[in-house]
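pls read this stuff:
=====
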Amino acid sequence: MRYTGPRNRIARREGMDLGLKTPGSKSHARLLKKLNVFPGQHGLKGRRKISEHAYQLREKQKLRFLFGVTEKQLKKYYVIGTAKKGNTAFYLCQFLEKRLDNLVFRAGFAPTRASARQLVTHGHINVNDKTVTVPSYVVKVDDIITFAKEKSTKIPYIEQMLTNKDTILPKWLERKATVGKLIAEPTQEEIAKQINLRLVIEFYSR
């Protein structure tokens, strides 16, 4: 089941900004002020020493919440990755990065992955001129991602995102105005900056 509780609490639990709140919003500002404050009445007081398994669990949870996927979905990506020859962490990252909702976010069409997921499910996004409403849809190299209707680009927060010149695209993705394109297979570099993928693989392989 996908988590629907307080998002700032989750980010504080993991001790990092998981991109769950729109940058620049009041809620995001409150998160940044309390990011190093553990949630709960007593914070870290009286907590036991963290075990190796707990470290692995926390990294797995960070990855889950970062991409907004369920435990079942993440485990499925891992199982498929282990069936392939090569680096399992690399394949796991590819499955996550090639999700349609993630690419809508990475292309700068939406401020968070949650809002990108909503755009997809509400029929605002086309892939190769066909409307796709499944957030987990796997985008292929050379696929074109656009808005289904021009009026979608007039939604205030989307207009703001499209005019934001500070958006940094990963090297395997390109965007021109309201058109995004996956130009190469995603790498694990972007995820590895935030998540220790080795611990995630160890968690599932135990």
The first strand starts at residue 125 and ends at 127. The chain has a mean pLDDT of 85. Residues 7-89+194-205 form a domain with the Ribosomal Protein S4 Delta 41; Chain A, domain 1 fold (CATH 1.10.1050.10).
